[in-house]
Design a protein that fits this description.
This protein is an alpha+beta fold and 151 residues long. It contains three helices and seven strands; from the N terminus they run βαββββββαα. Helix 1 packs across helix 3. The relative contact order is 0.24.
Length: 151
Amino acid sequence: MARTYQTLSSASVDDLWKKLVDLADVSWHPLLESTNVPRGLVVKPGLIYQAVTRMVPIPIQIFVERVRPGELLSVRILVMPGLEEQVTYQIKSTVCGACVSYSVTLRGWLSPLFWSLIRPYAARVASELVQATEQAATGNLKPTKPGCFDF
């Protein structure tokens, strides 16, 4: 089972990349709650870390397979026996900003069941990354309380 999602962004490729490879902050990710990665750790192939999912608070192992700085991050997620997930993030520069591509491939006999559970969340990963990056780049200038001219 494989699926790719793409989202356009007005943020720079560098800003998107910085947000993506900050593995200590996954607050933007609709599937991950937290990781055990210390702040400032440089992402490189061979890195293995743990993450806790939002759906079921169990730790999962994540293995970084490939990294092309500013372009591509590929990880393999070992959820449980009978289920393996490969995720690839790709960032490309466009005329209007950048394009973020999020590809998911599931393998194993549990993949149809797992896919039915995560599909709505997986569809949001690229757009949530873009939204979090754009908000950080603009300094989150939106007022917390509506003003008198907010419609």
